[in-house]
Task: structure prediction
Amino acid sequence: MFGLKLDNEKLLRLGIVGSAIVAICCFTPLLVGLLAALGLSAAIGYLDVVLFPALAILLALTGYAIWRRKRAQ
Result:
């Protein structure tokens, strides 16, 4: 995985935490308010292009980590 060696626990933690952060940014106006406060309102139109694929990738990573954990047992 891109030259990184992650054990099952770190991989699972990365997937869950990343999914939670992206989900919070996707489904709440938190990120929109933050970008507006920073003067980066022009980037708001591109959030769906970035956040939804990131959520899908991180959920897939979480599923992979769970699968790997069950296979190791």
In short: The chain has one domain: 8-72. The longest helix spans residues 47-72.
